[in-house]
Amino acid sequence: MLLVLWDGIAEVERLSKLNQLIEEFCHDGVKYIPLEQCCKILDNKRKPVTKSQRENGEYPYYGANGIQDYVSEYIFDGAFVLVGEDGSVITPAGTPVVTWATGKIWVNNHAHVIEEKEGVRLRYLFHYLQTVNIKPLIHGNIPKLTGRDFKAIRVPVPPLSVQDEVVALLDNFMNHSTKLTSDLALELTFRKQQYEYYRDMLLTFGDDVPVRKFGELASVMRGASPRPIKKYVTKEADGVCWIKIGDVETGSKYITHTNEKITKAGAAHSRYVHRGDFVLSNSMSFGRPYILAIDGCIHDGWLAISDFEENYTSDFLYHLISSTTVQNAMSQRAAFGGAVQNLNSDIVKGLEFPVPSLSKQQRIVAILDNYDKLCNSVNESLAAEIKARQQQYEYYRDKLLTFKEKEVSVNE
User: Fold this and answer.
1) 138, 144 in Cβ contact below 8 A?
2) Could you tell me where the beta strands, DSSP code E, fall in 236-357?
3) Residue 20 has what pLDDT?
4) What is the pTM of this model?
5) What is the pLDDT confidence band of residue 2, given thresholds at 50, 70 and 90?
6) Are the C-beta atoms of 85 and 142 separated by less than 8 Å?
7) Which of 116, 118, 128 is nearest to 167 (CA)?
8) CB 157 within 8 A of CB 32
9) 369, 134 in Cβ contact below 8 A?
10) In DSSP terms, which residues pair with 405 in a beta bridge?
11) In which band, very low, low, confident or very high, does the pLDDT at 336 lie, cut at 50, 70 and 90?
12) What are the angstrom distances between the C-alpha of 40 and each of 31, 120, 394?
């Protein structure tokens, strides 16, 4: 099947053993049988409970794509594989959403529930089901994998000795990938904290640097939305960029494009902003500053910051607004509208900002931009490694679970 899996000697030996078992027991292929013959399907024991009727507790409450809540009672106890039935049931790769669940749990009716049956290891099914293309089986406006289609999924069933070796290899590989992902995620967090520490230290000044209210240093104005917005959205080339928080990548410093444009008539009812200005999110993604690399219009979910050039360089102001001190100050002063914090222009105008000399600002920016570039490079490398490990696991999983189908005579 495979020549090499990964570097561990034990894994190579286990792979060699698996290849020997396949040659001995599966040289002419394996039988493919419907899923319902491979396991116990427990869908009739599921019970949905609305959020308002749930009582908080210690037991996981599962839905189509994993744990949705924790409740005070359970209806299953053991080891189970859950497969999304409707809603979030299919991955970008076209495979089902599969969850391994153990212990005392509750499952609603958005996930199929299967339990081990003699002859097929449940853990083998857990890995195999993640390789199945279910795109042709999904129906309806709300994606649904029906019970009938789910039961009919064909599964290759090699002898238990082969299943056990496949599971041992894939579990070990998954454990390696999970640990590495966890370690790299911690490294990403550490790098971010390290950067924030040095940024905040560099942006802490003594009494020799004057402090003034931000409203005296810049213009701060709230955005405005033409309503109904759908009336003004256009695909015409001369449309005006309509800037939304969803157009911005997390961690980005600049806004370089928009997904939609509005007509000039709509722009007349909105807040026009210019390249080089700042926008500051005032509700969703609370308090994030972005430098505009385009002209356009903003709705009332943004604040526009302009006319600061006499006091700040744009890059220094970006780092200053992003600092922990300023972010905490905005958070503490923000008014609450429902469950969402909202800034307003008066809050931002009232913040007290240090005003170092422009030459000092430039020196600080040079240090922070270089450190930011280094951190982003490390973050990109670590994120790429996490992605590569996951893809590596998926590659070997698919290889190990690909079996030649045994030709079955009419007499069998």
Assistant:
1) yes
2) 240-243, 254-255, 260-262, 271-273, 278-281, 289-292, 296-298, 302-306, 335-337, 340-342, 352-354
3) 72
4) 0.65
5) very low
6) no
7) 128
8) yes
9) no
10) 30
11) low
12) 19, 11, 26
pLDDT at residue 64 tops 70: yes
**CB-CB contact of 94 with 135 (8 Å):** yes
pLDDT tier, 411 (very low <50, low <70, confident <90, very high otherwise): low
Compute the 3-state secondary structure of the chain and give helix, strand, coil in percent, each to the nearest 5: 40, 25, 35
Calculate the average pLDDT of the chain.
87
Q: Which residues of 354-389 are buried (b: 16+ CB within 10 A; e: fewer)?
A: ebbeeeebeebbeebeeebeebeebbeebeeebeeb
- Please name the amino acid found at residue 278: F
* pLDDT tens-digit series, residues 218-239: 999 999 988 898 899 999 888 9
**Coil, strand or helix at 377:** helix
Helical residues (DSSP H) of 55-159, grouped into ranges = 122-129, 147-152
Q: What is the pLDDT of residues 34-56, one digit of tens each?
A: 999 999 999 999 998 988 899 99
Residues in the chain: 412
Q: Locate 157 and state its tokens.
A: 């069933």
**Beta bridge pairs of residue 296:** 273
Q: What ranges make up the beta strands (E) of 199-295? A: 211-213, 219-222, 233-234, 240-243, 254-255, 260-262, 271-273, 278-281, 289-292
Hey, is 231 helix, strand or coil? helix
The pLDDT, as a whole number, for residue 339 is: 53
Structure tokens at 274: 């210019």
Angle, in degrees to the nearest 10, between helices 9-25 and 160-202 = 150
